[in-house]
Sequence to fold (279 residues):
Amino acid sequence: MRLIRSEFLKIRTTNVWWLFAVGALGLLVLAFAINALNMHFGVLAPPPEATEGMPPEQAEALSAMAEPVALTSYMVTSGQYFGLMFVMLLGIITVTNEFHHQTATTTFLATPHRTAVILAKAAAGGVFGIVLWLVTTALTVPATLIFLNSEGITPALGDGEVVRAILLNGLAYALWALIGIGVGVLIRSQIGATITAMVIYTVGTIAVSIIVNVLTSLLEWDWLANVQWAMPSLASNLMTSGTDLPGQPHYWVGALVLIGWAVVTGLIGTLLTRTRDVS
Fold:
């Protein structure tokens, strides 16, 4: 507990936590507005020319997305993409700050058990992720109620699938802190780790989706389309979908993928920290 308190002190006494919090909340507002427009014009009231000649699979997916459970789950987890990114970056910084400011030697001399240090960092990052999830959820719940009521749709916030999506969203926030810590251990440079993680999280996710879709169309291998869900950012979105949509794996597949990423990166990070020289 002393180690965990020290990690909280390191986060709390720097500007990084509130800068990330302000950034996440600002982008949450933007994400919710974009999602609301997308749901209104793309799902609930699409223009006739957009639905004319639509393939049956796409029409089925559109119809499933218009159901109250799917709509509520989608809107109430708005801002997840940016929120998880900031939690990941905080996890990276909790590790790389030690090497950037050359405090790692002091930390490991004070606590020779390096595994305990990594676990303390994971706990502190996970708590930050949970707090950020609670704040964002507290904002998206009333916003979702207002939006769906304005569309003439009864919100399904009390539905078990929606509650599950909200809780799994909290799990995603906690797990991404562990992923960030793993990245920070693999790449000690603060700038290098941050840029690499940002590029993979944003550009890499889009690139994998495009490549998989192109190969699926060219090779006509339907199973290949499921490969993209191995990306942790897409898995996070899948696990909070609330209901199974046509053409997508079950929500628990996304949960297992994300847990796998968190366990592997955390384990590798811990093992490297135990064996590497500090300087």
In short: The chain has twelve helices and no strands. The chain has a mean pLDDT of 86.
